[in-house]
Amino acid sequence: MFPNDIGGATVIVNNIAANGQQFNSTFKIKGQVYHKVGSLLPMPNESHKFLQIYFMRGENSERALANRVDARCDYHNLNSAFASRIVSELDALLNEQNELLKLFKSQMTKLQSDNHAIVINPDRHQLESIYVDSTHLLLTTLLESWLATDALQYPLIFWKGQDRYCVNIKQRNPVTGAETNKNVSSKDFYSYHLMIRRGRDNIILRCRELRQQFIVDMYVKIESERLRYLRYNQQKLRTEEYIHLRDAVANNADTAEIGNSVILPSSYVGSPRHMQEYIQDAMTFVREYGRPCLFITFTCNPKWKEITSLLLPGQNAMHRHDITARVFKQKLKSLINFTTKLHVFGFTRCWMYSVEWQKRGLPHAFILIWLVDKIRAENVDSLISAEIPDPSTDQLLFDIVTASMIHGPCRNLNRSSPCMVDGKCTKRFPKDFTNDTVTHVDGYPIYRRRSTENGGQTFIKTISYADIDIDNRWVNTHIQC
Fold first, then answer.
1. Cβ atoms 351, 369 nearer than 8 A
2. Which domain, by its residues, includes 419?
């Protein structure tokens, strides 16, 4: 990476369960994201790092190359000769093709003393410039709206050092091609460059975890742009009409102590007023129609053929959250339409859902459905099942349940299961056999799980080269349509 310091916030968290099992990488934001660039040369008696590595010569350059190779071999378990060739070729590519690196090196020889600095201002319409000292302790903050910030932060993605997003990119009329007076938003810009286009190879889509970090970083840029607009356009939003400010004045509060607060409108996703609106809408359904009849959990399956068929060679679902999210959204809409419009459970009064993301990087939805005719106790077993289907009756459902709806198994059968904590299953499996569904006053029913003696089904599951007989005690509940 070119910048000397990446501040704050883009961090990689490898989710590891208590038993040591590793899940997909997760990128989180803590605090404010900022990127900084330092001097081109290190201070006396200091080692070269980050951008400074590209200005090492002779033995120092060879030693730096060897250190970078060793670091990558230790982290990725690579062959030393193989890694050395990759790093050497990448170094040669950047020195030959990267325009920013060429600019730094060409200007470096022109510096008369350590008191001089390189000033880069590639666009005369830009208000920001970047100052890079030859030798200095201070770090210069790279503004997110500056043209070359992306290329400095992700040199392997933008290996030519090409300019990226800035606030002055004008929209064009799609018919005439003429510029308009409107600017392209950062959301539109990055959405365009992340799209899949037939016949065109998109290098960003091939960068795996680096692509995930890039998307999170750019999303922060999008949110920052939105927040900056709200901050400097408070009068257009008529913030004086908000109730807490009006109450403060009405109660004779000291206006000097109110402060210059920034009000987020309900249109800003995730703001307090936005969440409050959703809560009020949900509570309106409950007040009008009572408790919901069905609570359905819909989970994304990374093995869906709609996902796997779109992956590039060498990729899996964790590398392409864009495909996962789009396929999940389409299937969720199909499920909602299937449930509410075809009336498979009866006529629907209303419905709502909330989508969340698991720590493993997969989305799931919680769906609430209100029916015209309430579900009675005698109807539960015809709608919800916690049993293995009969393969002679429905082979497709049997395959789905045995592949996706079986918990573990855990406990003595598999101590390394992710659900195991302190020798116990956190999901309380295996469940007990019962011939009838029992509804408790706390709202949590005990579903029917018949043993083989009472007509229950079993199948063999192989775990760690051992065949385990799975019965209905290990089945998660599923809907019977």
1. yes
2. 376-481
